[in-house]
Automatic annotation (TrEMBL):
InterPro entries with a match to the protein in the record: Amidase, Amidase_CS, Amidase_dom, AS_sf, GatA
Protein known as: Glutamyl-tRNA(Gln) amidotransferase subunit A
Keywords: ATP-binding, Ligase, Nucleotide-binding, Protein biosynthesis
Domain (Amidase): residue spans on this chain: 1-441
Known role: Allows the formation of correctly charged Gln-tRNA(Gln) through the transamidation of misacylated Glu-tRNA(Gln) in organisms which lack glutaminyl-tRNA synthetase. The reaction takes place in the presence of glutamine and ATP through an activated gamma-phospho-Glu-tRNA(Gln).
Annotated EC: 6.3.5.7
PANTHER family recorded: GLUTAMYL-TRNA(GLN) AMIDOTRANSFERASE SUBUNIT A, TRANSAMIDASE
The species this protein was found in: Pendulispora brunnea
Length: 451
């Protein structure tokens, strides 16, 4: 049924880049055979799951939606993919995204934009737009995405799905094509909170292949859904209800917070004074790390190679140049240039070092706030889904989409987006719930109580 659904809808939505038709059926037969033998089945037995194309899948083309990785077939699975397989899930295909996860609208994919299933003239958000659209269109009930500065939460908000960004280190990054290593986290999209909780439980936990993965025991996230939220303190930061917030989004989120109050939560204001520096800080740190991570794409090791033409051009450096020129899209080039600039001698102290200091201040804002409250609620995105093409020529307007998701990314703490009341014209709105470090369970309790 999932394969038929993808076949029927993908031409219109472009959510999947690769569909593993035969392999998906083989995997399903293997689960059936296991069941027939009376063997114990894993917690995701038979559930078809789409995987963001930034995650390596053994034997299946993995491009991160870049031309530079055209035709690249990884010889191994990312740890999260291996864990899904071990839970008897079915890896059904690879989802579209912004190239190397850089973007907020999915228009930076080298393989065409993803359309929002609620209105195909609008963006599903980014960078995990394919994963979000696939769930929103019910092609599959769950997918994996990655979130560096909002790339799971923002598309979840714009498509009316549930999206989870775990604590930094909660989920292994082994096999995730790196964008900004100190920020990248893998997480699930699902049609409901419990489904997302189950997938997160499967992919979480220490991985000896990722030194930044955390050894803390994995809580029972699914069990946390349904727990009473009576007396739980919800912080509402005034900084997240400022200029630029769409009035319909604001009304929906204020109503959501009142609903939680009716469930017995205690609502109080909190201050996150360094919020206004988050955008500048993020784009310095993320681009710096990207410029270093993307140096490996040189035409020698993976995917595309372009031989330079013209007399005297047949040297190694010219080949690097020709390959990168043809292989990287505009946004990726912009970030490599910005990242290289902020790391360069003479500018390092003024930009990169300063950004690291401000990152600490942003983290401390949250530590202070969480002395007073259990979770923080806000809009996920300042606007509902905007029109394709609307912001594509204005990188700053595009970057502003992430103002509410970036701070939690910089602080390394968990956040999620759950559907709130849609706008009058029927566009989805997302409620963001942010929790302290490793307190995903609290986030799930609130999310499930609201759902
Ligand atoms: N939109 C942000 C960016 O372009 C975040 C992307 C992400 O989380 N991967 O960097």
């Amino acid at each position: 049924a999932a394969l038929a659904g993808i076949e029927a809808k993908n031409g219109r939505l472009n959510a999947f880049l690769t569909v593993s038709h035969e392999s998906a059926l083989d995997q399903a037969r293997a689960v059936d055979a296991k069941r027939a033998r009376g063997e114990k089945l894993g917690p995701l037995a038979g559930v078809p799951i789409g995987i963001k194309d930034a995650l390596c899948t053994r034997g299946v083309v993995t491009t991160a939606a870049s031309k530079i990785l055209q035709g690249y077939v990884p010889p191994y699975d990312a740890t999260v993919v291996a864990r899904l397989r071990a839970a008897d899930a079915i890896i059904i295909g690879k989802t579209n995204m912004d190239e190397f996860a850089m973007g907020s609208s999915n228009e930076n994919s080298a393989y065409g934009p993803v359309k929002n299933p609620w209105d195909p003239e609008r963006t599903p958000g980014g960078s995990s737009g394919g994963s979000a659209a696939a769930v929103a269109a019910r092609m599959v009930s769950a997918t994996l995405g990655s979130d560096t500065g909002g790339s799971i939460r923002q598309p979840a908000a714009l498509t009316g799905t549930v999206g989870i960004k775990p604590t930094y280190g909660r989920v292994s990054r082994f096999g995730l094509i790196a964008f900004a290593s100190s920020l990248d986290q893998v997480g699930p999209f699902a049609t409901d909170v419990r489904g997302a909780a189950r997938v997160l439980g499967v992919i979480s936990g220490k991985d000896s292949k990722d030194a930044t993965s955390l050894g803390a025991p994995v809580d029972d996230y699914e069990g946390a859904c349904g727990k009473s939220v009576k007396g739980l303190r919800i912080g509402v930061p005034a900084e997240y209800f400022a200029k630029g917030l769409d009035p319909e989004v604001e009304a929906s989120i204020r109503a959501a917070i009142s609903e939680l109050e009716a469930e017995g939560c205690v609502v109080r204001p909190v201050k996150l004074p360094h919020t206004r520096y988050a955008l500048a800080t993020y784009y310095i740190i993320a681009d710096a790390e990207a410029s270093s991570n993307l140096a490996r794409f040189d035409g020698v090791r993976y995917g595309l190679r372009v031989e330079p033409s013209g007399p005297g051009k047949a040297d190694l450096k010219a080949m690097y140049g020709a390959t990168r020129d043809a292989g990287f899209g505009t946004e990726v080039k912009r970030r490599i240039l910005l990242g290289t600039f902020v790391l360069s001698a003479g500018y390092y102290d003024a930009y990169y070092l300063k950004a690291q200091k401000v990152r600490t201040l942003i983290r401390r804002d949250f530590e202070e706030a969480f002395r007073e409250v259990d979770v923080i609620c806000s809009p996920t995105s300042p606007t509902p889904a905007f029109r394709l093409g609307e912001k594509v020529d204005d990188p700053l307007a595009m970057y502003l989409n992430d103002v509410y998701t970036l701070p939690a990314s910089l602080a390394g703490i968990p956040g999620c987006s759950v559907p709130a009341k849609p706008t009058a014209s029927g566009l989805p709105v997302g409620l963001q719930i942010v929790a302290p470090w490793l307190e995903e369970s609290k986030m799930f309790s609130v999310a499930a109580a609201f759902e």
